[in-house]
Amino acid sequence: MSGPLRWGLAGCGWIARDHVAPAMARVQAVLDPDRARRAAIPGRPAVSTDDLDAFLAAGLDAVYVATPNDQHRPLVEACAAAGLPVLCEKPMATSLADAEAMVAACREHGVLYATAHNQRFHPAHEALAVLVARGELGTVSQARIHYACTAPAWWDAADWHWDPARAGGGAVFDLAPHGLDLIGVLLGAELLETTSLLQRADPVEEGGVVVGRWTGDVLGIVQVSYACPETLPRRTLELVGTAGMARALDTMGQDPGGTLEVIDAADGRARPVPFDAGGDPFARELAAFERAVRGEQPWPWPVERDLAVMAALEDAVRPRGVPA
Ligand SMILES: NC(=O)c1ccc[n+]([C@@H]2O[C@H](COP(=O)([O-])OP(=O)(O)OC[C@H]3O[C@@H](n4cnc5c(N)ncnc54)[C@H](O)[C@@H]3O)[C@@H](O)[C@H]2O)c1
């Protein structure tokens, strides 16, 4: 494999068009039933098609999947069967069973699977993870995330986000994967258990709170909503430890930047933590995936972490309850 990775892009909607394709050095092929959406992808792909077989035969090195959630499983399985490494958007699928099947298919065919938890790669989060690992916050036992938005005006009544069969769930399924993943990533901890409350769950939840326990007996709260005015602070992250508290604003989301500060427990003073404010989380994620595809550096995150997040989402929106 020489030159930049030849990416195939399956699903040419908002996240692919505005954030991921612009960060790709080479988009070789695009797949989408909607011709106009394919045409809107930057990078002059050599192949533009609505046919999966033509897409898979387009001379690809790797595939990025950014379709409605119910299409993740069939596309990941098709990539696996074609021997193509695949980076798939969050949530992994509409159910834990589908997510497990995707992982099994990739294992069977020996291809790399990774979930596109792009916020792992935000430079502020990487700086914070280093701070935590160095013990600068002491023993961290509390984590809080508020991650919310106003549902975009272009999601009309027929949009897949409102259909539980296509999306899996609403705001919790869509937004909570970021926070549930990020707390574990920042603390170097595993998600052990969760419990949740949902709001206005018809046809899918408008909001919710997921409370989790991570290794080290850390308790974390992830609150998400589709009903938060975007003029308000709505992307906040706090870690509280015995030696200090870290507070980040607007580092979660799609864009670079935001702020990160640490309040020292000794004197209660806040100091800003420097990080690369221009570092694009999507470009960094793609670069890490490319290194893994080339065998230069393993993908840093075991897929079991992604499955633990999927299990938490499923528990939140489809509680199994107590057997009779
Ligand atoms: N990481 C993030 O920050 C982030 C942000 C937004 C969305 N997402 C995820 O990305 C995915 C896409 O979200 P979006 O907001 O871009 O949605 P979108 O509705 O804007 O785009 C989805 C696209 O997929 C196409 N599509 C549908 N079925 C297909 C198929 N079988 N094959 C190929 N294309 C198909 C649709 O025509 C559409 O163009 C979702 O899984 C979502 O959860 C991630």
UniProtKB/TrEMBL annotation:
Residues 5-116 form the Gfo/Idh/MocA-like oxidoreductase N-terminal domain. It holds the Pfam family GFO_IDH_MocA_C3. GO terms for molecular function: inositol 2-dehydrogenase (NAD+) activity; nucleotide binding. Keywords: Oxidoreductase. Residues 127-246 form the GFO/IDH/MocA-like oxidoreductase domain. Gene3D superfamilies: Dihydrodipicolinate Reductase, domain 2, NAD(P)-binding Rossmann-like Domain. It comes from the Bacteria. The keyword Oxidoreductase applies. Its EC number is 1.1.1.18. It is an enzyme of class 1 (oxidoreductase). This is Myo-inositol 2-dehydrogenase. It comes from uncultured Solirubrobacteraceae bacterium.
